[in-house]
Design a protein that fits this description.
Rossmann fold, 8 helices, 244 residues, 2 domains, five-stranded mixed β-sheet, alpha/beta
């Protein structure tokens, strides 16, 4: 293992694109006491493209970098997408773990958990840093980040509005539908965000506002995501296992 006089710990949460960065930066600030974990796309890690292709092409380089310091950590979050599109969760899990094992056969590739919202932690036989993998939405089935968001929306008005937005998207006439069926949930979530006050909220507005806000709590916008939901708590536990 490479040793240096002034080792620099490398900690990364690798995601597919800019929207993912926006979401996870805010989420980590909400969930972790010391959320100094860079959330980065493949291009921000020295790659040439973002998206799932960028993640898979850059992953071997990032895995080699883990060897420089036992304190290094790498978490990977990618979308499963869909069985009829690219093989879904099973194909995505195999693709990522094949890269991991090809790069270093001493990583222990344990099977996906039996339960949803658990994630994988791949330990190393010789003590190199573990690697965390979470395949959106629930590390068990097909879908993407927007399915994860949808599952954790607060009950009450946020949930009712999301249901109405989803219904409107589902009823869109075929001749006006410009997106694929695989993006049905994505279209519903973004329609729901467009109906907030003010319209067109970003992912940053999904979460409770920070307590340091000068406004009284009664004047702060209500959160749209329930941080106490089983989905969010499962993801938090995985983050803690990877990085804490």
């Amino acid at each position: 293992m490479k040793q240096t006089n002034n080792p620099k710990k490398e900690v990364r949460l690798l995601v597919e694109g800019g929207r993912d960065v926006e979401f996870f930066k805010i989420l980590l600030n909400q969930l972790l006491p010391e959320p100094n974990i860079p959330v980065l796309t493949p291009t921000e890690c020295g790659g040439h493209e973002d998206g799932i292709k960028g993640v898979l092409r850059r992953l071997p380089v990032l895995l080699r970098g883990l060897r420089d310091d036992p304190r290094n950590r790498l978490g990977i979050v990618v979308d499963a997408d869909y069985t009829n599109l690219n093989g879904g969760f099973a194909a995505r899990w195999k693709t990522v773990t094949d890269i991991l094992q090809k790069q270093d056969r001493d990583y222990i590739i344990n099977l996906p958990p039996d339960q949803a919202y658990v994630g994988n932690i791949f330990q190393h036989d010789c003590g190199l840093p573990p690697v965390g993998l979470w395949i959106m939405p629930d590390h068990r089935g097909d879908g993407m980040l927007e399915d994860f968001i949808k599952s954790a929306v607060c009950q009450g008005k946020p949930q009712r509005l999301l249901e109405h937005a989803t219904e409107c998207v589902n009823q869109l006439p075929k001749e006006l539908k410009l997106f694929s069926d695989f993006h049905q949930t994505k279209a519903g979530v973004y329609t729901w965000l467009a109906w907030q006050n003010p319209p067109g909220q970003s992912f940053a507005n999904l979460f409770p506002k920070a307590s340091r806000s000068p406004l009284p709590s009664t004047q702060l916008p209500s959160p749209l995501i329930d941080l106490e939901s089983e989905e969010i708590k499962g993801f938090k536990k995985w983050l803690e296992q990877v990085f804490m």
